[in-house]
Design a protein that fits this description.
Elements (H helix, E strand, L loop, with lengths): L6 E4 L3 H12 L4 E4 L3 H10 L5 E3 L3 H6 L6 E4 L13 H9 L8 E4 L5 H12 L4 E8 L1 H7 L2 E4 L3 H14 L2 E2 L2 E2 L9 H29 L4 H11 L7 H11 L9 H4 L9 H11 L5 H14 L1 H8 L13 H34 L5 H7 L11 H10 L10 H23 L5 H13 L6 H12 L24
Parallel strand pairs: 1-2, 1-4, 2-3, 4-5, 5-6
Antiparallel strand pairs: 6-7, 8-9
Helix pairs in contact: 1-6, 8-12, 8-13, 8-15, 9-10, 12-13, 13-19, 15-18, 15-19, 16-17
The structure holds 6-phosphogluconic acid.
The site of 6-phosphogluconic acid (6PG) has 13 residues, from helix 8 and helix 12.
Length: about 475
């Protein structure tokens, strides 16, 4: 082992441990530190012969690193508001007096991008460098190769590039990491990645819900998902859904999925995405529906009570299986395209507002491997932006336009059937609503403008006069 380590990591929970093993496996020497020293000791003892240095104190840890020091923090961040400080801030405060100019701190957790911007400015003023890096891929990704979304100054990226590129997942030989942009851009893009992840997951769950109402067994559904995973819907989330449906509970012999309580958890990144979309006036109705579906699912007691009081049809789906599977496939594929169109629209809008210089095609490219939303169709998204970096909406790319035009009839038939049968499909229907609104040459907003002008003299533009000229009508008095 050499004198000094190339990389240091603080926070030896599972993600942290796996990242350390990943970095070490690429030929780097890694120092580790954990608040509870016994965790460090156990970790080092479990991996004899590896180029690992277990430090008992933060001082020892910092001194064991070569300069400029590269220290990744893997502790949970909870701060979202300006005044809030969390575990990441606490670690940073402890590190500051021990570090020297030019040393680099990397926050690899799911931190809120504004918190990252605050930390970036704070550390820069002290001559230290900061990278807020989104890391996706869960435990397995961390070990074998995640998708990494680092923000911060380009000069800091250049220093980190060899390590990041060697530990990231590879697709067609390309590492799933790029310098996303300055400041909070990396954590911002990771947040939208998670919003899209919520959308993907909910859409798959709605497909499952329809199959269930149609009487398919979990094994039949697993077979459908496994087959889809060979085609244009190929994705990690489809793959694990198929695998999850196949899993039997050893105690009861029943499918595990059927034994799991239908109450979804969430840690916040989806909700942050909604807030940011609202702030930027960008429609992300599919992701919105996905977050709200999790919220409603968590209100189990209320739903159980309402189920005996509010009426609806008893679902009876009599479509032939092959036809049903095709319709659900098309609804899922089309809704997924809409969801990505919305998420990318939000990234584009925010990137322009913040002057981050984001490259949507390259961002889609690093999501092709390592991360939770990895999927075959991200190749198509990469191509779409390569062909037209100014693409106004993903749905208008020639390839995706073709898919949507081909799927739209089945998609609307499926959504109408589900609605008539009382099966909740909030994300399928929100996506279709977006599609139909976006493609409407004329929306009923003319009446809305009339209402605004009626009660508040807010004025309106006319279809028969040049844009930008505003009119007001003397509406009649209303007698109530
Ligand atoms: C990833 C995941 C991960 C996230 C949870 C999902 O990209 O690896 O997005 O970062 O923490 O897996 O979070 P929820 O608890 O909100 O579903």
């Amino acid at each position: 082992m050499s004198n000094k380590s190339d990389f240091g990591l603080i926070g030896l929970a599972v993600m942290g441990q796996n990242l350390v093993l990943n970095v070490e496996s690429r030929g780097f020497q890694v120092s580790v530190f954990n608040r509870t020293v016994s965790v460090t000791e156990e970790f080092i003892a479990k991996h004899p012969g590896k180029k690992l240095v277990g430090a008992k104190t933060l001082e020892e840890f910092v001194q064991s690193l070569s300069r400029p020091r590269k220290i990744q923090i893997m502790v949970k961040s909870t701060a979202v508001r300006d005044h809030e400080r969390d575990a990441v801030d606490a670690v940073i405060e402890q590190l500051i007096p021990l570090l020297e100019e030019g040393d680099i701190i990397i926050d690899g957790g799911n931190s809120f991008y504004q918190t990252t911007e605050r930390r970036d400015a704070y550390l820069a003023a002290k001559g230290l460098r900061f990278i807020g890096a989104g890391v996706s891929g869960g435990e397995e990704g961390a070990r074998k190769g995640p998708s990494i979304m680092p923000g911060g100054p380009p000069s800091t990226w250049e220093v980190m590039k060899p390590i990041f590129e060697s530990i990231a997942a590879k697709v067609d030989g390309e590492p799933c990491v790029i310098h996303i942009g300055p400041g909070g851009a990396g954590h911002y893009v990771k947040m939208i990645h998670n919003g899209i992840e919520y959308g993907d997951m909910q859409l798959i769950c709605e497909a499952y819900s329809i199959f269930k109402a149609a009487g398919l067994s979990t094994d039949e559904m697993a077979a459908v998902f496994n087959e889809w995973n060979q085609g244009d819907l190929q994705s990690y989330l489809i793959q694990i859904s198929g695998k999850a449906l196949e899993q039997r509970d050893p105690e009861t012999g029943k499918p595990v999925v059927e034994l799991i309580m239908d109450k979804a958890g969430q840690k916040g990144t989806g909700q942050w995405t909604l807030l940011n979309a609202a702030e930027n006036a960008v429609v992300i109705s599919t992701i919105n529906a996905a977050v709200e579906a999790r919220i409603l699912s968590s209100q189990k007691k209320q739903r159980v009570a309402a189920s005996t009081q509010l009426q609806g049809p008893k679902a009876q789906l009599s479509l032939p299986k092959a036809e049903l599977v095709q319709k659900v496939h098309d609804a899922l594929y089309a809704s997924k395209i809409v969801s990505y169109a919305q998420g990318l629209d939000l990234i584009k809008t925010m990137g322009e507002k913040k002057n981050w210089g984001l490259d949507l095609g390259r961002i889609a490219a690093i999501w092709r491997g390592g991360c939770i939303i990895r999927a075959r169709f991200l190749n198509r998204i990469t191509e779409a932006y390569r062909n037209n970096p100014q693409l106004a909406n993903l749905m208008l790319d020639p390839f995706f336009k073709g898919v949507l035009n081909g799927a739209q009839q089945n998609w609307r038939e499926l959504v109408s059937t589900a609605m008539l049968q009382g099966i909740a499909v909030p994300a399928f229907s929100a996506s279709l609503g977006y599609y139909d609104s976006y493609r409407s040459e004329r929306l009923p907003a003319n009446l809305l403008q009339a209402q605004r002008d009626f009660f508040g003299a807010h004025t309106y533009e006319r279809t028969d006069k040049p844009e930008g000229e505003f009119f007001h009508t003397q509406w009649p008095e209303v007698i109530e």
